[in-house]
Design a protein that fits this description.
OB fold (Dihydrolipoamide Acetyltransferase, E2P), two-stranded antiparallel sheet, elongated
């Protein structure tokens, strides 16, 4: 089972779920209660969810968990259940994963690997189909330099696509949405929007900084000091200046290269839409508004999908609240068969 499946299955009172789980011990801490009783607090993740639980000193699993280190990859076999204090595990057995098992853990399930491969293929195909050679070369250069880091990055720390590979999922889906909307709004500069979609969250590669073998993103100094929007602007400017010696990039063309750069930077700066949501400026062009709304649509649909996957129904068709949605999510209306 995945940790997300275990989390949902243990939400009902009294539910005990026997399961085997391959995961990473993200944080392992020794602690004591106010009365001096020792325990271990362990945070685990498998890329689908993150949970914390305690192992008490009188537990059979205390000794085998005592030597766990942050980042260890393990297989847990036990009975999972939940109370008001969080997740619990009884009859726990733990072993370290072998090398191939670790590789498989971070690669994800075969279905997820296939889905991410499709996302990458769609992303690269849409970018390569752009007419503007300057923007096409800029995107190609970014992926050549940072593609591996991009493929493992998350799109957010908490709210949407907050998982390994989440940024690729989010970006590819936004690009597909843009490709579908382009015939409806043919007057817009879709090469600019397409490039803006790739770069709008590129600063998260450094703000979140997923490690090659890790399911969570530690805080980074540059992320705290600048934030992903400012970092993204810096990334584009550095790549842009680095291409100034390339004849394909500097060949005379309309619109002028410098104006293209300014508009692309505006898309990155304004994609949050409102200053209270962290945008340095609000969207001022049709392309900037389009990028903002495509981003917002995909983020909110993903948050709903995660609610359906993670939360229990408190009443028929009504799900328990999940931040940051406004109110409780309601089950969608099934499509008419046809």
């Amino acid at each position: 089972m995945t940790l997300q499946e275990i989390a949902k299955a243990t939400q009902a009172d009294g539910s005990i779920v026997p399961a085997e789980l391959a995961c990473q011990a993200v944080h392992v801490r020794e602690n004591v209660t106010k009365t001096g009783k020792p325990y271990l607090e362990i945070e685990i993740s498998d890329g689908t969810a993150t949970e914390k639980f305690k192992i008490w000193e009188d537990s059979d699993a205390y000794e085998e968990c005592h030597d766990l280190q942050d980042g260890d990859c393990i297989r847990m076999d036990g009975s999972f259940w939940r109370n008001q204090y969080g997740l619990n595990v009884d009859r726990l057995r733990v072993r370290h994963l072998e090398k191939q098992e670790i590789a498989d853990l971070f690669a994800g399930t075969p279905e997820r690997r296939a889905a991410l491969d499709r996302d990458w293929a769609d992303l690269t195909a849409i970018l390569e189909a752009m007419a503007d050679p300057r923007l096409r070369l800029l995107c190609r250069t970014f992926l050549a330099e940072h593609g591996e880091k991009f493929r493992r990055a998350a799109a957010a720390r908490d709210y949407h696509h907050a998982r390994r590979g989440g940024l690729l999922e989010h970006t590819a889906q936004m690009l597909r949405a843009g490709a579908a909307l382009a015939p409806v709004y043919p007057k817009l500069n879709w090469d600019l929007i397409t490039t803006g979609i790739l770069f709008h969250d590129c600063g998260k590669l450094w703000e979140l900084d997923y490690q090659p073998q890790g399911f969570v993103s530690p805080m980074t100094t540059i992320g705290e000091l600048l934030g992903h929007i400012t970092i993204g602007i810096e990334v584009v400017n550095r790549l842009w200046r680095g291409l100034e010696a390339n004849p394909e990039f500097t060949a005379p063309a309309q619109p002028p290269r410098e104006i293209v750069r300014e508009h692309l930077l505006h898309l990155i700066a304004s994609h949050h839409g409102q200053k209270e949501y962290g945008a340095p400026v609000t969207p001022r062009t049709p392309e900037a508004w389009m990028l903002h709304h495509i981003d917002n649509i995909d983020a909110h649909l993903e948050m709903l999908a995660q609610t359906y996957a993670e939360k229990a129904q408190t009443h028929p068709g009504i799900y328990d609240y999940r931040r940051p949605l406004e109110g409780r999510a309601v089950a969608p209306l099934p499509k008419f068969p046809g």
